[in-house]
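Glucose-6-phosphate isomerase, Psychrosphaera haliotis. Tokens?
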Amino acid sequence: MSQTILDSLQPHYARLKSVHMKDLFEQDASRARLFTKKACGFTLDFSKNNIDKDAFEALISMANQANLKEKTAQMFSGGVINTTEDRAVLHTALRSPKNSEVMVDGQNIIEDVHNALSKIESFVNEVHNGTRKGYTGKAFTDVIAIGIGGSFLGPKIVTEALKPYKVKSLNVHFVANVDAHHITDVLAKLNAETTLVIMSSKSFGTQETLKNTETARDWLLAQGAKFEDISKHFMCVSSNIAKATEFGINPDNIFPMWDWVGGRYSLWSAIGLPIALAIGYKNFADILAGGHDMDVHFQSTPFEDNLPVIMATLGVWYRNMFGSQAHVLLPYSHYLRGFPAYVQQLDMESNGKSTDTKNQPIDYATGPIIWGGEGTNGQHAFHQLMHQGNTVIPADFILPIKPNHSEVEHHQMLAANCFAQTQALMQGETVEEVTQKLIAKGMSDNDAKSLATHKRMPGNRPSNTLLMAELSPKQLGALVALYEHKVFVQGVIWDVNSFDQWGVELGKVLGESVLNALQGQQTETLDSSTQQLVDSFRSAVK
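Tokens:
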């Protein structure tokens, strides 16, 4: 992020930092209309932000100064923008139409992508129509999807969000944690004869995923299956065919992964196989179509009307000018309750960096803390801090307009709460306003003034409201792609590589040494605190 960019925002921040949004609305009756954009089934109202027309133009100019258009073209065309791993970044190709062309190492990868999709479609249809059976000849009734990180969070939240589209004859269960309670709780309620296991690991060596898969295999064998029966019950998504085959998986049941797809961007690939099994291939294809629609919007729409660009630049505005350390996602949808956790990984693993693309340490703020929860539940918990705490946290409110149920009053109440929260955060209530209300209710002047200091709401708390036409497969695909591109834009502006994740590696390496120590082997790599923890654990579990 250049000093020029920071300098260009400074006068706008100086002008607006002490201006209350309530005054901005009073000064401009057209503000809501001016700061509302529509695309891909979304309506984005960003009028409740600490900006005016000039500041918004400066944010759009910032995207241009960062060469966003050129960087976007590089990503979509297969340029090596993941420089630390020498890889292209082409999750967008996974949702491209069959007649597209994206070249990697002289080969059009779209053919490989659609061959994999055809394989997914055939497999899903075989499971659903009962022609693919377990070792005793029974059709499958349950699927265990084993992965972690991107190979777990994406498929899980999408399957959860699209519950109304679930295939009735099949239940999908997700397992990630190496804590045995997770896998054993799932296995305890299943029948081995009718259970299919999908293991997702690019290397076929991810510690937690491999251990859970071994436990599932041992369970299958303990229920009466033979080693040769494993090939009927275990599928995997991996690039390590040799290790998968050695495990007992039929090579025909191995689905591909490519180096140019990162885990947190992989639900569009065969990593999404559990999604297709849960909701049917046609609905999975609609997710891809929705993602592609957002790709087209992002690539072709001027920045001032571009949803990912607008959301991204507003995030930079608060992070680098106002000093906001966090950003909260508030889906007013029970089915989207897992979405904040998904974006948490997407955003924090992508932009939680402190070295720029020129290998230099960064002296400005980059990725914020991402968190959140479903509405209206959060209103009775952490919204207190949002309204009256001394930390200002920009928020995204997300609401599907058309619900997947027929309870009209329920949905009206949900929407009313969502909209009221955005108004309360923006508008607030002064000590004087609260005092007058309390006096009108019969409280004495002194008591009213005293209590009003505690009830006052400062307001001027920023938020976006993102309305979705509906929570359908296509709309959900567009939502995920919207946040992917938002994260990419911010990475470009902050000049970080959003597609590596070296911060996860050291813990893995040290974890091997700690595991050896826990199992009684000598190791010289532990500090005194960690050694003490190991000793305490070992003495307690003898």
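The mean pLDDT is 97.
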